[in-house]
């Protein structure tokens, strides 16, 4: 494809402008940005156990609006995470930029951080290849035994708009009794059963789309749309389309454009009100 030199120049100039803002422009903190957005940030010790999860997810929803996304939080309880955010993470200096195209990823167990962060990363998040590489580079270090994280929060954390979470993990990590298309499935357990049956019939990948976090739901992640990736085998596709039509027929106003007719598409969008 031929590139227009003028368009390339304008694009580069815009990129350079934003990078100058990022590197040398005014700064703020996420703590201050959240407070300016009307989100109260009480001291961790003043928040009761009963209110802690709601407050934490109000903060997570507020960070999403700032295009700030948390990663590697599964080693922390809700209280530990809120405390770390309140005392440290939210108070770090950040560029005061409110423009589309900027997003931040805040890793709570960074590889290459301090010794404590490295130990957490090695213990919970490093895979076998990562651990072997660490042994080769730092032969005198003691590598902690791998353990499963005690929590599954990362599976429901929001990400950039172009990312969509895998459905089975998202549903199982969601603590709401009615986390998905409640008018259609009623309970999260029924939605999990539907997703498991789709996988059992041969769906290659199923993702949740359009996740919402609303104050009247205590900021609990909720969704009503599935993206179902389809295999190539005709018989398997036929079984999937028959099942989706009989068991999971989407609402007409938002479902698949072809009303679950197999036209060779790679993906079907299922939506329920």
How would you describe this protein?
The chain has 273 residues and is α+β, with helices and mostly antiparallel strands. The protein is built from ten helices and nine strands. It folds into two domains: 152 residues, no CATH class; 110 residues, no CATH class. The strands form four sheets. It has a three-stranded antiparallel beta sheet, covered by helices on one side. Strands 1-3 form a two-stranded antiparallel ribbon. Helix 3 crosses helix 4 and helix 7 packs antiparallel against helix 9.
Quick recap:
This protein has helices at residues 5-24, 30-36, 49-65, 78-87, 115-125, 128-137, 167-173, 182-185, 188-201, 234-247, and strands at 27-29, 68-71, 93-95, 104-107, 205-209, 212-213, 221-222, 225-229, 267-271. With 273 residues, it is α+β, with helices and mostly antiparallel strands. The protein has 2 domains: 1-152, no CATH class; 164-273, no CATH class.
């Amino acid at each position: 494809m031929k590139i227009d030199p003028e368009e390339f120049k304008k694009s580069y100039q815009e990129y350079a402008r934003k990078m100058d803002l990022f590197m040398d422009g005014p700064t703020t903190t996420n703590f201050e940005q959240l407070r300016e957005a009307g989100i109260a940030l009480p001291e961790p010790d003043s928040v009761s156990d009963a209110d802690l999860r709601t407050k934490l997810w109000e903060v997570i929803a507020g960070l999403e609006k700032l295009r700030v996304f948390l990663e590697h939080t599964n080693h922390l309880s809700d209280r530990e995470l809120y405390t770390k955010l309140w005392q440290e993470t939210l108070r770090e200096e950040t560029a005061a930029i409110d423009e589309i195209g900027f997003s931040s990823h805040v890793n709570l167990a960074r590889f290459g951080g301090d010794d404590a962060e490295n130990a957490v990363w090695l213990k919970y998040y490093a895979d076998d290849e990562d651990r072997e590489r660490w042994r080769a580079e730092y032969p005198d270090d003691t590598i902690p035994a791998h353990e499963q994280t005690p929590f599954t929060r990362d599976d429901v954390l929001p990400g950039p708009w172009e990312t969509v979470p895998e459905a089975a993990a998202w549903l199982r990590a969601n603590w709401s009794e009615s986390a998905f298309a409640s008018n259609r499935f009623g309970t999260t357990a029924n939605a999990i059963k539907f997703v498991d049956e789709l996988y059992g019939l041969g769906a290659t990948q199923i993702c949740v789309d359009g996740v919402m976090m609303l104050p009247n739901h205590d900021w609990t992640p909720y969704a009503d749309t599935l993206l179902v990736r389809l295999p190539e085998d005709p018989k398997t596709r036929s079984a999937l389309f028959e099942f989706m039509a009989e068991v999971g027929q989407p609402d007409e106003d938002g479902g698949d454009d072809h009303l679950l007719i197999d036209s060779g598409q790679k993906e079907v969008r299922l939506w329920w009100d």
